[in-house]
Amino acid sequence: MKEERCDILVIGAGPAGACAASIAALTGVKVLLIDRKKVIGAPVRCAEFIPRQLLSELDCKRDFIVQPVKTMKSFLPDNNIVETPAPGLMINRDILDQALAQKAKEAGAVIWTETSAIEYDNGCVMAVKEREQIRIKARVIIGADGPHTRVGRWIGSTNRNLIPAVQAKVHLTEATGSTEVYFDRHFFGGYAWLFPKGDVANVGLGIKRGGSPDNIRKSLYCFLQKLKEQNRITGEVAGYNAGWIPAEAPRKIVKGNIMLVGDAAGHTHPITGAGVSQAVIIGKMAGKWAAEAVKKGDANVLKGYEEEWMDLYGETQERAYKRRELMENSWDHLDKIIKKCWVIFEEYYKD
Ligand SMILES: Cc1cc2nc3c(=O)[nH]c(=O)nc-3n(C[C@H](O)[C@H](O)[C@H](O)COP(=O)(O)OP(=O)(O)OC[C@H]3O[C@@H](n4cnc5c(N)ncnc54)[C@H](O)[C@@H]3O)c2cc1C
């Protein structure tokens, strides 16, 4: 069997893996970044909104930007609509992921696409690259392999609370500069959204209970019908996609020389479901600590990674997880508790 050695093996070339690989490679260590996809970033499973301030973290080509967004409209269960500032960008997520992978390559990381990590055996990762089995020996392994993380299984740290989401690409009757979020008692533990991209929009829905793909698809179909009746969208659907969103409390994400990041680590915001910012920012952090561990020849250094991400995001994540529990437990009174459970309200931030 073919063998490969590297200092850091990064599994998954989404934003978390690509950013980790970039930062680590810049320090001069040998980084291998693998992804099972043929084309990085495709197919897109994202509503494609990022907050404007994330731009300062994205030191790559900017051709992923489609349009700016100024505000968010929250459609509440009592039929009120609240518009709040939410400066951000609607993007082509596949182009962003490819730009971040390109940066990792320029930093010196080697990238293998169509390469799946299969199992962990005796300190080595067994992978399949274009039907050939390869044994990869790395000093540090970064699991950036998304919500259904296989690397997480190797260290007993997986996502337990995954929310299924479906999304359609539709044509808007009129362009808009706002994202829209819809709460409805039928969308248990989640919400529907309309995020504009010029004359089209990503319209989607994440629901927890009864989350069989069929049930969610039916709910999305009803939501699309409603938007059509309101003359917001035309009837034509340009495509569908679906994915899973982790809604997790913070947990241990390092064991020995293996660490998790991004959706694999449950870093997604448990209320909003947004995860690109955390993937980029904590991805860079993971790359920095992994390189440090390699240089010092000591996997214990990785404890610093757990401390740093918890310092930066622990409180936000804990609060959002608690708010999710409250929301799910009080769903029948959603109109009464929405201010405590949705991020635009002051009450959300009060204990
Ligand atoms: C419908 C939907 C809408 C969303 N909308 C937004 C949004 O508008 N804004 C936002 O900020 N967030 C959004 N999110 C969340 C966001 O997409 C994720 O948080 C983000 O993709 C996390 O990045 P990541 O790098 O951790 O994981 P991913 O982007 O999932 O990347 C993981 C990579 O690992 C690869 N991989 C998996 N297993 C293996 C293996 N065994 N071997 C090799 N490679 C492997 C996959 O091919 C993939 O490329 C949305 C999610 C969904 C599902």
CATH-defined architecture: 3-Layer(bba) Sandwich
The biggest sheet, with number of strands, parallel, antiparallel or mixed sense and barrel status, is: 8 strands, mixed
Helical content (DSSP H or I, runs of 4+): 25-40%
> Any ligands, ions or cofactors bound here, and which?
flavin-adenine dinucleotide
Q: CATH class, anyone?
A: Alpha Beta
Number of helices: 7
Tell me the structural class. Answer: alpha/beta
- Overall morphology: globular
Rg: 20 Å
**Overall mean confidence score, pLDDT:** 96
How much strand? 25-35%
Q: In the residues, how many domains can be counted?
A: 1
**Spans of at least 5 consecutive residues with low confidence:** none
* Cα end-to-end separation: 56 Å
Q: Which helices and strands appear, and what pairs or packs with what?
A:
Blueprint: E1 2-11, H1 15-26, E2 31-34, E3 49-51, E4 65-75, E5 81-91, H2 93-107, E6 110-112, E7 115-121, E8 124-129, E9 132-143, H3 150-154, E10 162-172, E11 178-182, E12 191-197, E13 200-206, H4 213-229, E14 233-246, E15 254-255, E16 258-260, H5 276-296, H6 303-329, H7 334-341
Parallel strand pairs: 1-2, 1-9, 2-6, 4-11, 9-16
Antiparallel strand pairs: 3-5, 4-5, 7-8, 8-9, 10-13, 10-14, 11-12, 12-13, 15-16
Helix pairs in contact: 1-2, 1-5, 5-6, 6-7
The protein binds flavin-adenine dinucleotide (FAD).
Flavin-adenine dinucleotide binds at residues 11-17, 34-37, 45-50, 116-117, 144-146, 150, 165, 167, 204, 243-245, 262-264, 268, 273-277, 279.
